[in-house]
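FOLDING PROBLEM:
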Amino acid sequence: MARIAVVGSINMDLVTTVGRRPQPGETVSGEGFALVPGGKGSNQAIAARRAGAEVDFVGAVGDDVFATALRDVLSEAGVGVSRLRVVDGPSGIAAIVVDGGGENTIIVVAGANGRMTELTAAERQTIAAADVLMCQLEIPVETVLAAARHARAQGTVVMLNPSPVRDLPAEVWAEVDVAVVNEGEGERLAESLSAVPHVITTLGAAGAAYRGPDGEQLSHPGVPVTVVDTTGAGDTFTGALAAHWHEGPRTALAWGCTAGALATTKLGASASIPELAEIRRVLAETVGR
């Protein structure tokens, strides 16, 4: 069983469902509303745990009404929360609109996530004890760099999901062992990704592709499902991939594609992340594992 440290964000998602998303300046009637704990870091941590890994979460919540629910969703999933800080001010939130086709629009407000500006000694110990460090870009880049440097120095694999996409200093990329991107991110970051040993590109319903350090190419097809909401599907893919990275890219791709597809069949981010038994069942049906 892999041990994973996630240094990342945790948000409360404010999810509204609509028949179609409004145009600029337009008002439309919503069909439903839900509060769903999310955030790329939290989603990936829960996904990795449900895919069979031991996971510790390093992050921050505020001192507001959302904080307890955010902590509870991690602990109830079996994710370690001893490194989840409480800071003054609001927790992170994401305003999400999901249309009738399952596509979404997301606005993220960092809140407490933006105050993750340094790592404590205890948090560094958690990173050093992990097999894989997972990071995203919903916390300050300086913290991502510090975590990645410490992980590499301790022999921990550094997996970066560079989302929300942005240009990063070369010193960040120099610490990354594995990058997980979607097609748009891959195109924008192509030059930077050329220096990363392992690159996984998600292809939506078509599955995912892998490029290794020696130019090795692998792919895994998509898993046919009825899509309800794509929110969190990429995070679910990344978490499941990380949980099985130690088994090799081919197996990790199969786990990621299966878990990511299943995540699109329910509404919300963390609420849609599939359990281990469900992933195994679909894997057995689709790839004989």
User: Anything to note?
Assistant: The mean pLDDT is 94. The longest helix spans residues 249-263. The chain is about 30% helix and 25% strand. The radius of gyration is 18 Å.
